[in-house]
Structure formats: C-alpha cells, structure tokens
Amino acid sequence: MVVEAKEIFRHVKDRAGLRTAREAERAVRATLGAMASVLAEDDGRALSAALPRDLGKCLSRRAPTEVGTLEELYAEAQRRERVAPGFAREHAQTVLEVLATTVDAEVVERLRRHLPTDIARLLQPREGGGEPPPHVHAHPAHRPSSVQTLSRSRPGTGDPIAEATHPVAHAGSVARSGAPHAERMVETARSTRPAREDETLAGARDEGRRR
Asked: In this predicted structure, what is the pLDDT of residue 137?
C-alpha cells in the first residue's frame, strides 16, 4: 500500500523541525529530484511506483549532472531546495530516513543494494525506530511551605532574619573588644626602654607617688 504524500510531509516536518508542511514538501521534492540523478533507470521506476503519483514524478526529471557520491547528492538537493548547505544536508538525511520507513521494504532493500555505500547508509530507519519521544518536562515534587513574612524570610540563608545570631564583626576585630583602642591609649602605652617593656605610663606615675 502506497503511503499518502501528506503523511510523508508530516514525518519530515516533525523530524527535521520544520515550521510548515510546505517546507517539508519542498525538502522531499528536492531530495527525490537529487535521487533521480543517482539511481539507475529501473531503480528509479521502482521507487516512483512505491510513492504517491505526484511525488513519483520527481524521479522522472533527471538533473543535467550525474550524482555519484553523498556530497554530490547534498549539493544537488541544495540546488533544488535553495537553502543553506547545512539545512539541505539535514533535510536530505531526514527525507531518506522517512522514505526507509514509509516505502515498501522490498523497494528500499533493492535501492540499498544498488546505491553507493555512503548514500545507502542513510536510507534506513532512524536508530531506535519510530518517532522521537515527546519532550516531558518533569517538575520537582512540590511541598507546601509555611506563610512567609519579613521576619521569617530567608534571602540566601537558612536562618530566619529574626532568629539570626551571626556575630557583628569578624574574630580579631576592634569592634568585638571592650576597649578597642587600649593599645593606643597614653596611659596604657608600653615603655620602649630596655628591661622596662612591661612598664606603662599609668604604672610609672603610681610608683613615683609612692616614693
């Protein structure tokens, strides 16, 4: 049973990520036209008979240049589709994959035996078979949370603002000392004279009064 043309277009559109069925149709016709230049005449007729009549006609119009390699096939498909080389390459690959799954299996096997090896390698179903699986966006498990207030909020920390006990200054800071400027006060300044380093100005005054 010959598959309908719209089914082939739909498969190509989905697999190649094209926007419209019209773009898919253009890619299919361009690839088939390029294939007409690489297939032997009897193989071309066999493929044409396995396709919808309108698409089969693409194989009857041979290009003026012969195609013998995969790169030449890509170039001919690009010339016909009139897209960038990268898109033409991707579209041709997709069309050949779709043909391998929609055309009669005996015809596909016949073409693969007679085509150049690098082209025959593309005329086979997508690895894994079937359509690509639909994208599933899995959301993480949702756990109800308590009502958030300003005092209970946690902006970047695991501790509520109202319960935070972080120190106001780092260790060794003068802000954490009871007398932050003790070492610079005149009364507690240390003597610089030898053997009297432990003597402070306040201590020296007290000793003078006792004398």
From this structure: 37
**Structure-token match 């096939």, residue found:** 73
Percent of the chain with pLDDT over 70: 58
Backbone angles phi, psi at 190, to 5 degrees: -85, 150
Give the tens place of pLDDT for each residue, 90-138: 999 999 999 999 999 999 999 999 999 999 999 998 765 444 444 333 4
Are 67 and 37 in contact by the 8 Å Cβ rule? The answer is yes
DSSP of the chain = -PPPHHHHHHHHHHHHT-SSHHHHHHHHHHHHHHHTTTS-HHHHHHHHHTS-HHHHGGGGS--SS---SHHHHHHHHHHHHTS-HHHHHHHHHHHHHHHHHHS-HHHHHHHHHHS-HHHHTTSSPPTT-SSPPPP--PPPPP---PPP-GGG--SSSSS-GGG----SS-TT-GGGSSSTTGGG-TTTPBP-STT-TT-BHHHHHHHHHH-
Q: What is the pLDDT of residues 1-49, one digit of tens each?
A: 788 999 999 999 999 999 999 999 999 999 999 999 999 999 999 999 9
Residue 172's H or E segment, with its range, is none
Return the amino acid letter for 18.
L
CA distance 170 to 154: 22
